[in-house]
Amino acid sequence: MQHLKTEQLIEGLEIILQSPKDNGGVEMIVRRPKENEREVLDVGQLDLELGLVGDNWKTRGSSRTNDGFGHPLMQLNLMNSRTIELLAQTKVRWPLAGDQFFVDFDLSEENIPPGTRLSLGTAIIERTNIPHLGCKKFVERFGMDAMKFVNSKQGKLLNLRGVNAKVITPGVVKANDRIKKL
């Protein structure tokens, strides 16, 4: 699959900017049981300690922690579904981004600054202040222009690469559930 060029990505920005600012939708839930493995779920269970149950977030670890476990402020990754739809060009490739939740929702700094709480199904999560940026794997899967697009000044303000979050209230999230600001 050909990666999109910068001009094509910029053309797609208008659709991304139309994302709901409140009362959006959960378009896809993806669990990562092992590195480079993805499972698309109809239903996900959010847990205070484990994040998305069955996901490898905690055991995969983080270079930002001393105990070798996942960073507690990076339990969950949410990405705007309109952004990944543009980058991936087909829904089958969405899980390659590595995020657990793809949502039709405005994830911009202005709309949901760090500390904002969101309801997803019966769970409540909180956007954290750790940036979620593209990495080497993101470039391999979606191209260097995509990385530059999501990590540009505007891309960072819009959080086009997504946001990190943590579980506040455990619960169940289903594909097609609503995502709302609290």
UniProtKB/TrEMBL annotation:
<dbReference type="InterPro" id="IPR011037">
    <property type="entry name" value="Pyrv_Knase-like_insert_dom_sf"/>
</dbReference>
<dbReference type="InterPro" id="IPR052353">
    <property type="entry name" value="Benzoxazolinone_Detox_Enz"/>
</dbReference>
<feature type="domain" description="MOSC">
    <location>
        <begin position="38"/>
        <end position="182"/>
    </location>
</feature>
<dbReference type="InterPro" id="IPR005302">
    <property type="entry name" value="MoCF_Sase_C"/>
</dbReference>
<protein>
    <recommendedName>
        <fullName>MOSC domain-containing protein</fullName>
    </recommendedName>
</protein>
